[in-house]
Amino acid sequence: MTQTVRLSERSPQVSADELLAGFHPSYRFGEVSFDTYIPDPAHPSQREAVERLRAFSGALAGRGGSGGLFGGLFGGKKRSTQPAGIYLDGGFGVGKTHLLASTWHAAPGPKAFGTFVEYTNLVGALSFRKTVDVLKEYTLVCIDEFELDDPGDTVLMSRLMRELADAGVRLVATSNTLPGSLGEGRFAAQDFKREIQVLSDQFEVIRVDGEDYRHRDLDAPPAPLPDEEVVATARRSVPDAGVLAVDDFADLTAMLSRVHPSRYRELVKDVDVIALHDVHTITEQATALRFVVFADRLYDKDVPVVASGVPFDQLFTSEMMHGGYMKKYFRTVSRMTALVREGQLGVAEEK
């Protein structure tokens, strides 16, 4: 029997140990590999990225998962000629997270996989020094969606990455560059290298070109449903004894302001499908940024969405979509559209 819940009535709690335990690929990327990544023949850089990352993770496995990048310097072994890390630069939906997760799966442990926001939350929960002390024992740290729109967080993460690399940890990060910003002078790669000054020469930047696979060769996104059809449609996608979350969009966004983003994963961990009534355009920047994190957690867990109101390509104002946080908002629109397509049309992603 389906259990119906309201996310707006939840108040999840997450300890620092639970945060650390969650630093692995999400359900969506829990079993991916380089073999399950399907390169687009029209964009050779995708296959080249697979081959380079396969070699990178293979080199990590070859050194037994211990000693770190500079372990040979102190352990008597020959110092590795591999770069300290790799930075995947590309647009939305080209499979960067798939490649990042594949690298994590292929590498020996201990290892960590999380989003940029999740690492900043970890620093907030543990302190900077404790975070370094924990992660410096790892072989590999993967950072998804390295963000450059908050100077404070960017400097914080750059310092963290410098200290981890100095301790011998290998790093792989992905960017959130807009398709219109690719090519010469692209924002993400330049700012990334400037912010991690000490490491800039040791990072290898790999371009991953292509179209957004979430919407490649698909019809236009489905229109929002009439409000009275939302719950009934959502129930058809809920598995036996599954959990359906039903919320008014206004109540949901109000709740997100009361719950720290580090707890959003816990918020939706048991949810199979979400039904949203009366989605409307978000006009406040703080609310929009919180919803970005929430949408990432839904996408990580592959939670189909059924909704009424405005379509998700109207979720943010035009000013937001062309402002300083545009990269985050475009990513959210892409991901929410994919989840709505799955929830309302039963069309799941294949890549």
UniProtKB/TrEMBL annotation:
Record key words, sorted: ATP-binding, Cell cycle, Cell division, Nucleotide-binding
Domain of life according to the entry: Bacteria
InterPro entries recorded: ATPase_AFG1-like (IPR005654), P-loop_NTPase (IPR027417)
Transmembrane segments: none
Cellular component terms per the entry's GO annotation: cytoplasm
Gene Ontology molecular function, alphabetical: ATP binding; ATP hydrolysis activity
GO terms for biological process, alphabetical: cell division
Protein name in UniProt: Cell division protein ZapE
Organism the protein comes from: Micrococcus cohnii
